[in-house]
Structures are given as structure tokens and as C-alpha cells.
Write a structure and sequence with these properties.
Strand order of the largest sheet: 8-7-6-3-2-1-21-22
Pfam families: Lactamase_B, RMMBL, RNase_J_b_CASP, RNase_J_C
Shape: globular
Largest sheet: 8 strands, mixed
Protein name: Ribonuclease J
Oligomer: single chain
Helix content: 25-40%
Number of strands: 27
GO molecular function, one term: exonuclease activity
Distance between the termini: 75 Å
Radius of gyration: 28 Å
Structural class: alpha/beta
Keywords: Exonuclease, Hydrolase, Metal-binding, Nuclease, RNA-binding, Zinc
InterPro entries: Metallo-B-lactamas, RibonucZ/Hydroxyglut_hydro, RMMBL, RNase_J_2, RNase_J_b_CASP, RNase_J_C
Strand content: 25-35%
Length: about 550
């Protein structure tokens, strides 16, 4: 039973207006006593240029941290890092049960929760088709096709209505590993009456249907069978269907499979535990590479996104301890570069080509397919579900805007354009954004988390652009400068535009500034620091054309 005060709300804290860091809240009840569930808790990857020194980003969950006594659980749609990768870092702030299928649970335990110092997360295994009830919510995991096994949409039922959160999905009748997206299951939900469909937007700008994993498997079989020498395949470590396809292709032509990379090893172990690699022989260790004939081996390598410490990058630099390639060997990129990674991937490809290695990508062969739906697949989903409201998620602004137009073209009466922090009332009344809450990003900097207001990142950007000048000055209590100031320049060119050494320009600026100050002013340490800072930055700008960061310290003696 609902009361006049009961509301059903949707609140994304990550993954809406961006790719990655997926975290969505659903709340039910009166405003002051609302109970919440979270769907997914993922991370994103920071670019070195935009975020120097930072590898990982997480959604800011401070809104629900303040209400954690009312948070009933975290429900995982699937085991990709942009959906589970923040759990080990952020779960201690929430401390609620995490519900996931066996594959996601095992991979989470192996990949994130097996690290030293990881929290003891309360994980509860969910079987698709079995309903989970927590507080006022009833949740069904509905299997869908995606590029990792055991992916699910989640049907969320409350007294105010049914919401379907699709997660990541596609239509693939032959997925090689994992589930198919069942028209009957979604039609049944549509017949029940869907208040809102919260749906993946990633490939809404692409026409047609996504090719099947089975088509990729056929291509891999051909390319591996035809290769005259060694074959190395790089793909997302989590793509069990691709791993199986490579292994079956190798088996068909009498080749051994060697798996290389910790992430690959972890996924393979979990996939075997869950039965997704049944019927295939165990893979060999990387130290077997040199002992096997060139025409009898296939390597599965991590590093499809150009990660500098991953196996493929090390092979391309010729510094991997076990795996080396030679002219005539073949490398297959069974992946597509995520936006922002193109330069790193391109550098690896160029290094391999310079060594005489043949490189095959999805530009010339069907060696990769997306795990997200194109427009014709989305037409099917909307026809099955017939929602009263569409809320586009999982995409950048371009994808969300195009999805909104697409949903209206499918006859959906109400489309809500949400962003991270948008509090959407789904019921009662017309679904709409009713307010905005704090939403942002946290950055993993070394072993600490910092928020997007921390000064460290913008200061590092500035240092990367214009370097640093460091000045230390000793002044006694009478305002007398003692000795010569200690001056160093870091990250500046040796000489300015006229050929003058930049260090001399800095020394002259400091010396002239101090000489021009009275003893009274020299007694004011803070004033000296500000005056010298301005003089140094001005002098360097005149000589170089850039203003560096400047650190001036006055030591009072």
C-alpha cells in the first residue's frame, strides 16, 4: 500500500553524462523516511593528461553515505569494472549487502577483494529468476546478452510501479558464452506495465544490429588457422566469449593457448569455476612460449587498451620476460580502443609493425563486436517493454540526447533527461526531475581518495604546463638577507628567447627585488614571499613566454 507521502524516485550518481562510474539509486517512501537501493558501483579510468598521477576515478556517493542507515543493498548488473570497480574502495563507507550472480561475485572476490587490505564485503549470491525482496523493493535479475557472462537487467517492483533498469545489453542469439536477451521475458514485463525504462544509450547513434559473437568466433578461427607463425590475440580480459572463441580456434588447428597477464588469469580461473570454459584444455603458462614451435602457439594477452604495464605493451617494447614476437608473427586486436586510448593503442601497433609483425584490427576484419545495442536492437526493446517513461543512461551528452529523440520516435509519451545528481520522481504523477543533489568524482591518488575540489590535480596540471621555480631566502629579525637565496628551476627550458639562461633571469629577479625592499618590508615574511613570487613569474614570462608555478619560502633566522 502506498500513502500520499510515498514516492518512487531515481537518482543517478554516476554513469549519466559520462561513460563509466555507473551508480544509480532508487528510493521509495516519504521524503524523510525513504528507503534506498543502489544498482552498480563502478569506476572510471582517468587520462594521464587530464588527471596527472591519477589512474582511477569513482563516483562521489556522499548523498547516500549521509543516508546509509536507509540503504538496503547494492545490486550488481554484471562484472565489468565500470559497474563493480568502486566496491572495494567505497563499500566501507556504506557497509550494506552486495547482491550479484555467481560469476560477478567470484570475479569481484578474485579481482578486487583479494587484494591486500581489501574490506570484507558482505556478498550475497543471486540466481537469475529468483526474486530478492529488501524493504519495499522486489527485484528480479533478468538475463541479457553482453560482453561478459551473467549480465542482467533488473526489474524493480514497488507499490508505486515497476521500473526496468536494463544495465548493459544487446541482442545476440549466439553469444558463445553467457545468456541471450529473451524477448519473452521483456514482453512479460511490458504486459505487466512498466512505469519507466532506464536504458543503455552507448550505441544509439549506430544503425542496424550489432554482429554476433559467433561471427567473431568464425573470423578468429580463419585468422588463426591461416597464420604461418605465432599468433597473439589481445582483448578485454573480461570477455569470456572471446577467450573461448580463441581457444576453440586454436584447438581446431592444433595450437596451444598461452594466457598472459594477471587480469586474464583471474577471469580464466573464474570462468572455469563457473563452467564457461568446459571442454577446453588448460592453458599453458607464459614460460612455455619459447619451447613451442612457432606454428603451434596462440597467446592471449592483456593490454588491448594500450595500458603501458600490460602484457602487450611490454611485448611491443621487447621487455617482456617470456613473450617475444618476430617478423611474420600475427597480432590480432580483438577489441576497439575506448575513446581517449587511441594514442596509446596506436603507439603499440606502430611498434609491432616496425618489428615486422602483422597487425589485424577491426578496421579490416570482424574481430570485435560491441556488447551494447544499436538502434534496431533498441527498437525491439521498446516494442517489447512499451514503457510509460524512458530515462536514457550509460552515455555521454551526445548519446543521451540522441536516445531521448529515439525514445520519443518509438512512441514513449514521457522522456526524462537526467544527469548525475538529478533526483527524478517516477511516481506518483508525471515523472520529472524535481531537484538536484551533490554528485561528482573521487580520484584515487596513490593510496588516498581525493575529491574534485582538491588542489592537487590542478596544481599538477600547472606544473606539467609551465614547471616550477623554487626560492628559499634567509632573513634575520633585523630585516637583513643572510647569504645568497637558494634557487632551483624544474621543468623550465635552459634558455629563454634571447638565449639567456633562464636561471640567470630568476636570480636577477630575486636579487633586484630584495635589493629594492626596505628592512621594514623585509621583516614581513609573507609580503616578501608574495613580492618575490610576482617578480619571478614576470621575469620568466618575459624571457620564456610562460608563467611557472613559483614556491618562495622565507626562513626567519
Amino acid at each position: 500500500m502506498t500513502t500520499k507521502q510515498d514516492e518512487l524516485v531515481f537518482l543517478p550518481l554516476g554513469g549519466v553524462g559520462e561513460i563509466g562510474m555507473n551508480a544509480a539509486l532508487y528510493g521509495f517512501g516519504p521524503e524523510k523516511g525513504r528507503k534506498w537501493i543502489m544498482v552498480d558501483c563502478g569506476m572510471g579510468f582517468a587520462g594521464e593528461e587530464a588527471m596527472p598521477g591519477v589512474d582511477l576515478m569513482f563516483p562521489d556517493l556522499s548523498f547516500i553515505e549521509e543516508r546509509r542507515k536507509d540503504l538496503l543493498g547494492i545490486f550488481i548488473t554484471h562484472a565489468h569494472e565500470d559497474h563493480i570497480g568502486a566496491i572495494s574502495e567505497l563499500w566501507p563507507r556504506l557497509k550494506v549487502p552486495v547482491y550479484a550472480t555467481r560469476f560477478a561475485k567470484n570475479l569481484l572476490e578474485t579481482r578486487r577483494l583479494g587484494e591486500p587490505g581489501a574490506p570484507k564485503v558482505e556478498l550475497r549470491e543471486v540466481k537469475p529468476g529468483k526474486r530478492v525482496t529488501v524493504g519495499p523493493f522486489e527485484l528480479d535479475f533478468v538475463p541479457v546478452s553482453h560482453s561478459i557472462p551473467e549480465s542482467n537487467a533488473i526489474a524493480i517492483r514497488t507499490a508505486a510501479g515497476l521500473v526496468v533498469h536494463t544495465g548493459d545489453w544487446k541482442i545476440d542469439p549466439t553469444p558463445v558464452a553467457g545468456s541471450v536477451t529473451s524477448p519473452e521475458a521483456f514482453r512479460a514485463l511490458g504486459d505487466e506495465g512498466i512505469l519507466a525504462l532506464v536504458c543503455d544509450s552507448t550505441n544509439v547513434v549506430r544503425e542496424g544490429f550489432s554482429p554476433s559473437e559467433a561471427e567473431v568466433a568464425q573470423t578468429m578461427r580463419k585468422l588463426i588457422a591461416e597464420a604461418p607463425h605465432r599468433v597473439a590475440v589481445t582483448t578485454f580480459a573480461s570477455n569470456v566469449a572471446r577467450i573461448r572463441a580463441v581457444a576453440e580456434a586454436a584447438q581446431a588447428c592444433g595450437r596451444e593457448v598461452i594466457a598472459v597477464g594477471r587480469a586474464m588469469d583471474r577471469v580464466i580461473d573464474v570462468a572455469r569455476e563457473c563452467g564457461y570454459l568446459d571442454g577446453l584444455p588448460d592453458f599453458r603458462r607464459s614460460d612455455s612460449w619459447k619451447s613451442l614451435p612457432r606454428e603451434k602457439v596462440v597467446a592471449l594477452l592483456t593490454g588491448s587498451q594500450g595500458e603501458p604495464r600490460a602484457a602487450l605493451a611490454r611485448v611491443s617494447r621487447r621487455d617482456h620476460p617470456d613473450i617475444q614476437l618476430a617478423g611474420g608473427d600475427r597480432v590480432i586486436f580483438s577489441s576497439r580502443a575506448i575513446p581517449g586510448n587511441e594514442r596509446d593503442v596506436g603507439a603499440i601497433i606502430n611498434d609491432l609493425i616496425e618489428q615486422g609483425v602483422e597487425v589485424i584490427t577491426d578496421r579490416t576484419e570482424l574481430v570485435h563486436v560491441s556488447g551494447h545495442p544499436r538502434r534496431d536492437e533498441m527498437v525491439e526493446m521498446y516494442a517489447w517493454t512499451r514503457p510509460g517513461t524512458a530515462i536514457p543512461v550509460h552515455g555521454e551528452a551526445l548519446h543521451l540526447d540522441e536516445h531521448a529523440r529515439f525514445a520519443r520516435a518509438q512512441g514513449v509519451q514521457n522522456v526524462v533527461k537526467a544527469r548525475n545528481g538529478s533526483l527524478v520522481r517516477l511516481a506518483p504523477g508525471k515523472p520529472e526531475v524535481i531537484s538536484h543533489v551533490k554528485a561528482g568524482r573521487l580520484f584515487k591518488d596513490g593510496n588516498v581518495l581525493i575529491d574534485d575540489k582538491d588542489r592537487a590535480i590542478p596544481e599538477r596540471r600547472k606544473l606539467a604546463q609551465a614547471g616550477l621555480v623554487s626560492v628559499a631566502i634567509a632573513i634575520d629579525e633585523d630585516g637583513v638577507v643572510l647569504g645568497e637565496p637558494a634557487i632551483d628551476i624544474i621543468g623550465l627550458p635552459n634558455r629563454g628567447r634571447t638565449g639567456e639562461p633562464l636561471i640567470e633571469a630568476v636570480v636577477d629577479a630575486v636579487t633586484d627585488t630584495l635589493a629594492g625592499m626596505s628592512k621594514g618590508k623585509l621583516k614581513d615574511s609573507e609580503g616578501v614571499e608574495k613580492t618575490v613570487d610576482r617578480a619571478v613569474r614576470t621575469a620568466v614570462n618575459e624571457a620564456w613566454g610562460k608563467k611557472p608555478a613559483c614556491h618562495v619560502q622565507v626562513v626567519e633566522v
